[in-house]
Amino acid sequence: MLHPVGPLPAAVYWRRRLVVLVVLLAVLGGSGWLLVALIGDRDGAAAATGTARPSETPALERVVPTVSEVRTPATTPPAPVVVSEPTPTGPAPGGPCTDDMIDLSVRTPGQVAVGSKPTFELVVVNTSAVPCVRPLDKQVQELVMVDAAGTRVWGSNDCFPETSSDQRTLAPGETVVLPLVWGGLTSEPTCTAPRVTPAPGAYTVRGRLDTKVSGDAPIVVG
Questions:
Q1: 20 versus 4: which is more confidently predicted?
Q2: What's the pLDDT tens digit per position in 205-219?
Q3: pTM exceeding 0.85
Q4: What is the DSSP letter of 155?
Q5: In a 3-state reduction of DSSP, which class is residue 78?
Q6: What dihedral angle (degrees, nearest 10) is formed by the CA atoms of 57, 62, 67, 72?
Q7: Within 10 Å of residue 104's Cβ, how many Cβ atoms?
Q8: Could you say which of 42, 51, 114, 181 has the lowest number of CB atoms within 10 Å?
């Protein structure tokens, strides 16, 4: 090996060996470089593939949506509630006392002697919940007495009618007593018939305040 044998000079053989050695080293060097390049490209491609590939969704999330994926229906805020003031249905305070806002009754002594001059009372009560105004003028006050048959015996405005101006404000529940005196004699609206004492017996007195009429109150004469 170290001493080439052949017809050619030894230098030729040494040059041939040198060329073969250089070629062999070049082939080995090129193969190593190529191998390193291939390994590098494979690692880069794997890294790129790993970066680009999205992570696989877990099987449970593919079946059950996440909270962020669940769409809730849009809620509309409730419309504001408008509270309207109730419309007053009762009488206005300070207005007139209508007939249905007052109570009217008559008080009598119950029994009087023939020819006596008893005092009867016309009682007015404001039964409403508000103060109201009612005329209590003399000319709108009246008492009438009738006998058991319903025949008119006496009237407070027959012979001596009076007039006055009395606009009265009545508080809720307030009672006003209006006294009227009976002279003990009969009368009629024109006051032209003779006036006499009524016969002993049971009579009825009823009152009126303008358009408001009271119930009947008993009176015994005798």
A1: 20
A2: 999 999 999 999 999
A3: no
A4: E
A5: coil
A6: 140
A7: 19
A8: 51
Return the residue matching tokens 């009682």: 123
pLDDT of 63: 53
Structure-token pair, residue 99: 């007939």
Reading the block at residue 131, the tokens are 């103060």
Interatomic CA distance for residues 130 and 101, integer angstroms: 9
* Tokens 């039964």, residue located: 127
| Residue in 215, 206, 213 with CA at minimum distance from that of residue 153 | 206
How many other C-beta atoms can be found within 10 angstroms of the C-beta atom of residue 143?
Answer: 23
Residue 180 contacts residue 141 (beta carbons within 8 Å): yes
How far is residue 78's CA from residue 162's CA, in Å, rounded to a whole number?
Answer: 68
- CB count in 10 Å sphere of residue 107: 15
DSSP 159-192: SS------EEEE-TT-EEEEEEE--SS---TT--
What is the rounded distance in angstroms from the CA atom of residue 207 to the CA atom of residue 106? 6
| Residue 206 to residue 141: CA distance in whole angstroms | 11
pLDDT of 89-102, one tens digit each? 678 898 999 999 99
Query: 126, 172 in Cβ contact below 8 A?
Result: yes
Which amino acid does the sequence have at 49? T
What's the pLDDT score for residue 40?
61
